[in-house]
Amino acid sequence: MVITGIPESVWGTLLSDAAESNLSVEDYARQLVCDAAARAILAKSHDISAAQLQDNLSAFLRIAESQPIFIHDELGRRFALISFSEFERLTGTSENADN
User: Fold this and answer.
1) Is 53 exposed, middle or buried (0-12, 13-18, 19+ CB in 10 A)?
2) Per residue in 48-95, pLDDT tens?
3) What's the predicted TM-score (pTM) here?
């Protein structure tokens, strides 16, 4: 895919944001597109399939840092993907807590 006609100010922002993320512009743009696709899927449906999760895992993991992701598999089982900090908040545990 080739994208043309990107305004200079947008290109400058992409360059700057990619550098801050230690990514190439191509990798950063790919991440933006994947994240937008994942958010569009979530906007249409309350939960996603396990196959959708596998297809765009990195994007859904980034989204799960700020909101739960609900997943269903082919057997109809449902799961929730949440950030570790949310897990700690819900369970009252800490990663550094002694067992």
Assistant:
1) buried
2) 999 999 999 999 999 999 999 999 999 999 999 999 999 999 999 887
3) 0.79
